[in-house]
Structures are given as structure tokens and as C-alpha cells.
Amino acid sequence: MNQEQAGLIMLAVAVVALGLVAWGWSNRKRKHADWAQHLVTQIPTSIPTSSLEGLYIATTEESKPLERIAFGPLAFRSKVGLFFHPEGIVFDAPGSSPFLIPTSADLQAGLATWTIDRVVEPGGMVMIRWSLGPHQVDSYFRVTDSQPSALVDAVNQLRELVR
Questions:
Q1: Tens digits of residue pLDDT in 55-100
Q2: Confidence of residue 145 (pLDDT cuts 50, 70, 90)
Q3: Which of 1, 43, 44, 141 has the fewest C-beta atoms under 10 angstroms from its C-beta?
Q4: Per CATH, domain 38-162 is 3.20.20.150
Q5: pLDDT at residue 160, rounded to an integer
Q6: How far apart (Å, rounded) are the C-alpha atoms in residues 50 and 154?
Q7: ∠ at Cα 17 (12, 19), nearest 5°?
Q8: Residue 163: pLDDT band by 50, 70, 90 thresholds?
């Protein structure tokens, strides 16, 4: 086998691998396509009680921490602004329309160390569990302008408003 043949084999393997990745992502997008209807796009007009800047990492199904949700603003990592209103949390990522995680969406928050394709120091990530229509999901964030516990406390205070 000469160098050209080896190069062609490697190129063919790379093309097949990229094709499988594209096929898997399109299947995931198709699986979650109807979930987008449950996003609340009506943003509250009230003044936010607080806000935090951070990095959005991923949203996964509750019992499937390696199954990334693949639609709209939840599909990709990005910077994010989280604005806390009595009605819920406004998730505002650049390049996408903001949406509301309602206070009534069974909000829970806690510290996390890992999620799909990301591992950080113990307690360096915040996980927010919420209801997306009939689906329970976990969204993961890294807070950049304060301590992770500030985000956990803010989410859990909203949860107390519902009780």
C-alpha cells in the first residue's frame, strides 16, 4: 500500500465518521422537534429582581444525562443572561430569542460537577431541573459574575414563591 492509498482510506473513514455524526444530530433534532412548542416565548413585563451572567452548557433529559436536547436555544453552548422575575427565569442567549422558564415549572437547583462533554471542579456548575411541558429536563450553567451558590439560591427562592 502506498501513501496515496493510505491517504484515500483515511479520507474515506473521516467522511464516513462525519456522515454518522450528521445523521445522529439530525435524528436527535427530529426527536426533540415537538418539544419546542412547550417553550414560553412570552417574556414578562415586570422588572427583573436580579440577573446573572454565565455560560450555558447543555440541557439534557432528566434521567438521561448524556442525551443533549437538540432544538432552538437549548441545542448549543453559549453565553447567557439569566433574568429573575416573579413569573420565572428569562433565558437570554445571543443569537436566539429569549424564553421564560416559568416559576410553575417545578424549578429545582443544585450544584453539579459533570454533564455531557463537560467536567468541572466539584460544585463548579449549576444544574436547574425544570418542566418543559410534560418533560423534565436538566439545564447546566457556569456562572461568570458571581458564585454558583448565588444562582442556586435565586432559583430556589423562585421555587418558594410557588409553594
A1: 999 999 987 888 889 888 888 899 999 999 999 999 999 988 999 9
A2: confident
A3: 1
A4: no
A5: 78
A6: 8
A7: 95
A8: low
Task: Output the CA torsion sign for 27, 138, 54, 148.
Answer: negative
- Rounded Cα distance between 62 and 45, Å, is 30
Q: Is residue 162 within a helix (H) or strand (E), and if so which, with residue range?
A: helix 148-162
- Indicate the pTM of the whole model: 0.83
> What whole-number distance in Å separates Cα of residue 70 and Cα of residue 57?
12
Place of cell 464516513: 16
The Cα-based distances of 24 to 59, 70, 71, 159 in angstroms read 17, 11, 14, 36
Cell digits for 58?
447543555
Domains of the chain, residue spans: 3-34, 38-162
Please tell me what DSSP assigns to residue 48.
P
* Farthest-apart Cα atoms in the chain, separation: 71
What is the predicted pLDDT for the residue at 13? 95
Say if residues 108 and 128 touch (Cβ distance below 8 Å): yes
What is the model's pLDDT at position 162? 67
Nearest to 72 by CA among 88, 87, 92: 92
Q: What is the DSSP letter of 40?
A: B
